[in-house]
Specification:
Elements (H helix, E strand, L loop, with lengths): L5 H44 L7 H10 L25 E13 L5 E11 L5 E8 L2 E2 L1 E2 L2 H7 L10 E5 L3 E2 L4 E8 L7 E8 L4 E7 L7 E4 L5 E10 L5 E10 L5 E8 L18 E3 L4 E4 L4 E9 L10 E8 L4 E7 L2
Length: 334
């Protein structure tokens, strides 16, 4: 049997030590490689999902320069009691619409009264210039003129009459206006256009739904208003001219006749100036029909030698009506 000496044993031990050392180094290399691969994998994942971490600072600054800065909005310092009065357009609210049908008792005549109330919801005052019903411009009359015309057939001459209580509608304020007409068809829709001074319009529709509750009957009556008389003297002092106005504000027609001054009738009818010496004449006919809602203007010409009148004399002008009424006007000559 071959025996290994001391030196051989030492060689065997050295060989095993070298083998063990090499094995440890191999394992360390493998571990190092695994760690490095793990780090690379982690960096790759971070770079993919969080690229901004690796973004160059200069690139970030350049992108910031490209961002558009939004405009600065100024904040109004006006309080609630100081609304902006710039023109932001017309804003009107129709608060109410009321229609009344007026009828003569025992007669065929009727007319309609349409009342509106509106509110200015805008931020500026508005001035109503005119009103259009469908395609018809309403004739604007004063309250006095309107009162003389309503209830008479004279409305038909205008088509639509309007009476505006207040033409200036302040912002936030309300106003009423009324339309009078003979031409209104029940269950029919109409358009109403308000034209304002700043050349803007507001249009709305309304429907004439008239029921028995909206019908008011009134009796026919006679009312002749003896209005003013103006006296002027001819520049040469040869004669006077008197213009006398009457108006039928009732619902009945009157026939006027028998004009007289101090009980004396005119020398001629249908006349005009110059007046003959010693006479008084008139431009009216012997009889004049004065319908409901109409007015008349009578001219009387008086020569200065007639009646021996002088300046300051008060004369009595008189007209009789077919109704039996007498209409008198006292006039002082100038």
């Amino acid at each position: 049997m071959h025996k290994i000496g001391f030196d051989g044993k030492m060689e065997a031990v050295r060989a095993r030590a070298i083998l063990n050392l090499n094995s440890r180094k191999g394992i360390s290399k493998i571990i190092s490689i695994i760690v490095i691969m793990g780090i690379i994998t982690s960096i790759t994942i971070v770079a993919v999902y969080y690229p901004e971490i690796f973004q160059n600072k200069n690139d970030t600054d350049n992108e910031a320069d490209d961002i558009e800065t939004p405009p600065v909005t100024e904040t109004s310092t006006e309080g609630p009691g100081e609304p902006d009065q710039g023109n932001l357009g017309i804003s009107i609210e129709v608060l109410s619409t009321n229609i009344t049908e007026w009828r003569h008792i025992g007669g065929d005549y009727k007319y309609y009264q349409i009342q509106f109330r509106i509110k200015n919801m805008g931020n500026e005052d508005l001035e109503i210039e005119y009103i259009v019903v469908d395609t018809h411009v309403a004739s604007e009359k004063s309250t006095e003129e309107t009162r003389q015309l309503i209830g008479s057939s004279a409305i038909s001459e205008y088509g639509y009459l309007t009476e505006i209580q207040n033409k200036i509608v302040t912002f936030g304020g309300e106003t009423d206006f009324t339309i009078y007409t003979e031409d209104l068809r029940n269950e029919t829709e109409y358009s109403m256009r308000l034209h304002f001074a700043d050349d803007e319009d507001f249009t709305f529709n309304f429907t004439a739904n008239i029921t028995s509750a909206d019908i008011v009957e009134y009796p026919k009556f006679l009312k002749i208003e003896v209005q003013g008389a103006v006296c002027t003297r001819h520049p040469t002092g040869a004669n006077w001219t008197i213009i006398w106005k009457l108006h039928n504000s009732g619902t009945k027609t009157e026939k006027l006749r028998y004009l007289s001054i101090n009980g004396r009738g005119p020398d001629s009818f249908g006349a005009s100036t110059p007046v003959p010496d010693g006479q008084f004449t008139t431009d009216m006919d012997e009889e004049v029909i004065l319908p409901s809602g109409r007015g008349i203007e009578i001219k009387i010409f008086i020569d200065d030698t007639c009646f021996s009148f002088k300046t300051g004399t008060t004369i009595n002008i008189q007209l009789n009506g077919a109704s039996g009424q007498t209409y008198i006007k006292l006039v002082e000559l100038v």
